[in-house]
Amino acid sequence: MKYADVKRAGARTKSLMFATASLVLAVATTGCGAECVDVYDCRSENGPAPAGQEWTCASEKCETRPIQQVPEEDAGTNPEPDAGTEPDAGTEPDAGTEPDAGTEPDAGTETDAGTEYTCETAPYDPVLGTLQLQTGFETAGSAPMPDDVLAVAVTPGPTYAVYAVQGGTSADVYSLGIWPDLTPSASPLFNVLAPEDRGATSGIYPNRFLVHGAERLLAGYTKSGGAGTVSLYDIVTPGNSSYVNSPGNMSAAAFTSGTTSAFLINSAGLSAINGFGIYALVTSADPMASVKVADFPQTAGANGFSAVANNGVSVFGFAVPPDYSNVAYAVAPSVVSAALSSNTPFALDAQPQIDVGSDFDAASAFGDGVVVKRGAYDDTWQFVTTDVSRYALSADATPGEVVIGERTPVLSFVDQCTSVTQLTHLGSDLLVGIEDVNGERLVRIRVVQ
Fold first, then answer.
1. Is the four-CA dihedral 400, 247, 372, 161 of positive or negative sign?
2. pTM exceeds 0.85
3. Which domains does the chain have, with CATH numbers?
4. Which of the chain's termini has less CB crowding within 10 Å, N or C?
């Protein structure tokens, strides 16, 4: 289970909302100790018999024997066998052998019907796996991704430098090279953990976000008991990198307005300021400043996900008890700028809410809009994804308002054999982390022009 899931598991309750019957695959089982009832069970469980052999079901056990040829008089030429006698209506040579009925081309094979659909038998596209790309979108290249990547960030174009957080309790930031010719650096650029937390073998949880903004990279981690830290790496001057107290940090996004540059952090505090909300680490200030941008309502039970679209419209969210499902609100850039300049937070629930229609466990900018990975948690606290969908966002003519477009599916899931491990943006396109039997990879998706 990924950390974003673990972080919520203690607070989630086993609600009826998790009884998503349409997403559960039923598995049929046979009776106590019995391997078979007839030869069809043997074929279904064991596949085709060896060459020259056929399956039989004897004393509820599957066995093979040499294929028995059907006598000519039993093959429909004798009037007596054709009228329901034993040779024609149920004997093994007539109504169950490979030459007559139930053979591989006819029933019970992969090419026909009866084979159970599993991740071993599922068809995989080399790029998208079993995911289905929806109308209006297209892939625009892919690249292999190293193991143990928690999060990816990309610099603004036209040349896209790719960075990643790798590792478990000791997370580091690496350069992955220039898209799409990714070559990971041999040594890390930066340790996500502050010096006092390095070397711990437990109680450290690197979070699944990495954000690029103003020639800096922001990552974060939390610790047992709720404490946390955000880590700021200065790409130009590594010696200016720093660590800032931020309990419960869950996600972050970069925001720019005029000469102001900031990281917007979805957390329970920043520096000496506390309380659920959105905080800004203003990197354009000297020294850097910490400002609370948005207050969460009292109904919020945990921090959530964040993104800033290319046009500056922000999306912030939180989790709501008792099932701790995520909600999201769209915020005009002028509203965020006003909070930064006045040092006065706005009420997030006073902003327009995005009608996601389900829970979600990831979000990212995608051009002038946002994408979310929708689905629901099952009884084992695993997130079962149904789709990745996009919402177009635009600032209305009325200052401070946002127009939210209809949900547009980008990727749909026909099974859980291929998973989406992360979402981030590459310029105006979407970069999706995908994992299945073909390994881990990053896939670039764009809107069809």
1. positive
2. no
3. 3-9+128-447 (2.120.10), 39-116 (no CATH)
4. C
